[in-house]
Amino acid sequence: MSTLSRIYRSTATHGNYDTIFLILLLTFELVISIAIVRYVPYTEIDWKAYMQEVEAWLEGESNYMNIRGDTGPLVYPAGFLYLFALLRWLTDDGKNITKAQSIFIGIYWMQQFTVLLIYQERIPWIRSRCKEKDKLTLAHHVWAWRGAMAITCFSKRIHSIFLLRLFNDGPTMLLLYISVLLFMRQRWNVGCIVFSLAVSMKMNVLLFAPGLLLLLLQASPDLKTVILRLGLGCALPQLILGAPFLTTYPVSYLRKAFELDRVFFYKWTVNWKFLPEDLFLAKSVSLVLLFCHLSGLGILSVRWLRAAQKQTAKRLFLRQPLSSHYIAYTMFVSNFVGIAFARTLHYQFYSWYFAALPYLFWSSSSGESFSTWAFRLLPIAGVEVAFLTFPATPWSSAILQLSHVAVLLSIQPPLVIDDEQATKAVEAARKRD
């Protein structure tokens, strides 16, 4: 056996190397982020408008209809105002862009740290499943998963969204991924609060809500606990954060902060440029996409519940910890179905789901052959190319949609709980029957 082969196997077999690999990726991210901020020019898009909206609120305006910036009216919930008011204070009324970019380096780095921890939760399970196989097979699977982790660090567009544009999508997704990690570690109460904080930054997080509801129904011991977690963990923070606006101009706040009927400009769409503009703006297209979204969620929910019953003899209120992989995968699938059938995707919306793409693909396909790797990498590359193409073209939009279809076709219900737990659950159910 060659030295390289021994290193390849040993670094996959021993868990100590997981931490080393994580540190190497995070170090790379920090170095490349600093270099990007230093050598690539900043692009002003929304930051100035954010500061104008915050300034209007700080001057006493609480009617969302009257809070505006250069890019239009304020369309984000109250948590956005609180965070960006803090950022305004830290950046000399928003004028110190260099300091703002430094802060966003920290936000991006923390998001990557959280995302990589989500991925790393999977590696011990891979080792346990492959322990009966030879070490080379085990090494292939571990390094394949580490490859998925590395891919999350190499998106040019994602670095641009965080570091050169300073979009509010960045801190929003940081909070979302923290909540997912908390759920994976069975911290449901705290996770619901953090999830609600993410919603208070931008309502796109609600795309994860159907998955969270299913998880709460399965992870909670009874319906009362589900209601308490939804009420105290998810709804109450929204009421507290929105109180200054809900108690003064409630209709204006709800209509603008959670503007579900908002129509985006055709010129900025990334995903439907192969449609004529009049068809893109047609109400019928919006209704068809909504129907597809809800139907997709319904079909996958049925598949998920059947898989749970097959494995545990129950569908809801399983009364045992869900596997961490099941939790992350369910949340990511819930969000992706909404992405796939979205009326429009803007460039910054890429941050809503890029980090989950390798997770979805690597979880759904088996084997480490060249064809398997090609199946995984080509759609991810297609999505990246589409979001790098500016302005979007009919061809780039078509590539994006085909890549989305590949992801949808790869989705499979994961194991609800670990195999050993599942065996015990089925035996216990049979005894009760």
UniProtKB/TrEMBL annotation:
One function term, GO molecular function aspect: dol-P-Man:Man(5)GlcNAc(2)-PP-Dol alpha-1,3-mannosyltransferase activity
Pathway of action: Protein modification; protein glycosylation
Catalytic activity, as annotated: an alpha-D-Man-(1->2)-alpha-D-Man-(1->2)-alpha-D-Man-(1->3)-[alpha-D-Man-(1->6)]-beta-D-Man-(1->4)-beta-D-GlcNAc-(1->4)-alpha-D-GlcNAc-diphospho-di-trans,poly-cis-dolichol + a di-trans,poly-cis-dolichyl beta-D-mannosyl phosphate = an alpha-D-Man-(1->2)-alpha-D-Man-(1->2)-alpha-D-Man-(1->3)-[alpha-D-Man-(1->3)-alpha-D-Man-(1->6)]-beta-D-Man-(1->4)-beta-D-GlcNAc-(1->4)-alpha-D-GlcNAc-diphospho-di-trans,poly-cis-dolichol + a di-trans,poly-cis-dolichyl phosphate + H(+)
Class of this enzyme: transferase
Keywords, alphabetical: Endoplasmic reticulum, Glycosyltransferase, Membrane, Transferase, Transmembrane, Transmembrane helix
EC annotation from Swiss-Prot or TrEMBL: 2.4.1.258
Domain of life, source organism: Eukaryota
Record field: transmembrane: 20-41, 74-91, 103-119, 162-182, 188-217, 226-246, 280-305, 326-350, 370-390
GO cellular component: endoplasmic reticulum membrane
Pfam families named in the record: ALG3 (PF05208)
Cell compartment(s), UniProt: Endoplasmic reticulum membrane
Record's bilayer topology term: Multi-pass membrane protein
PANTHER family in UniProt: DOL-P-MAN:MAN(5)GLCNAC(2)-PP-DOL ALPHA-1,3-MANNOSYLTRANSFERASE, NOT56 - RELATED
Name of the featured protein: dolichyl-P-Man:Man5GlcNAc2-PP-dolichol alpha-1,3-mannosyltransferase
Native organism: Fistulifera solaris (Oleaginous diatom)
